[in-house]
Write a structure and sequence with these properties.
This protein is elongated. The protein has 178 residues and is mainly α. Helix content is 62%, strand content 6%. Helix 1 crosses helix 2 and helix 2 crosses helix 4. The chain has a two-stranded antiparallel sheet with strand order 1-2.
């Protein structure tokens, strides 16, 4: 008896659920490291100057610092490896629309354009669900897309799903005499 073949999804466009899971992980990481950074900075500031960063005047500065930190986390991660930590854990990679590795400029444009996808009630993100290539507005602007990629090992479908698709495909090829 032959071993069932698992279907590979490496290089296929990543769906909305995978991308959302990666985004949640990334935002948790961004928030955690930002919080640790602010706590450390606040501790050092109080220790050396007896001042605190918790005044009402620091709120706009805190929002700007968070936005800069989030931008740098995403941009540097994408520019270096084509994925953030969340995308890496979800098995995703950002590539150019033709499948090749994107350049630093494309990753800068993609990261800078991300807020446009969120504006207007997330319509730019909704494109992931309705478009065939699952590309968002910021992907289209940067001419990029997100694909499944686990590096050297193949991204495979779960065993039961592969078995089902293999059975369905074999039934299509050789229908039973009826």
């Amino acid at each position: 008896m032959s071993r069932p073949v698992r279907r590979s999804v490496s290089g296929h466009y990543a769906g909305a659920v995978s991308r959302a899971a990666a985004a949640v992980i990334d935002w948790l990481i961004i928030g955690a490291f930002y919080t640790l950074g602010v706590a450390g900075f606040s501790f050092l500031l109080e220790m050396f100057t007896s001042r605190s960063v918790t005044s009402d005047r620091s709120t706009p500065l805190g929002i700007a610092a968070f936005a800069i930190w989030a931008f740098l986390y995403v941009f540097v991660s994408l520019a270096i490896s084509g994925r953030t930590i969340g995308k890496g854990l979800a098995g995703l990679r950002v590539v150019r629309a033709d499948g090749t590795a994107p350049g630093v400029r494309a990753m800068f444009v993609r990261t800078l354009a991300f807020p446009l996808s969120v504006l207007f009630f997330g319509i730019g993100l909704l494109m992931i669900v309705v478009q065939r290539e699952h590309r968002s507005l910021h992907d289209m602007i940067a001419k990029s897309c997100v694909v499944y990629d686990w590096g050297d090992r193949s991204a495979e479908m779960p065993g039961p799903l592969s078995d089902f698709l293999n059975r369905a495909q074999s039934e299509i090829r050789s229908p039973e005499p009826g």
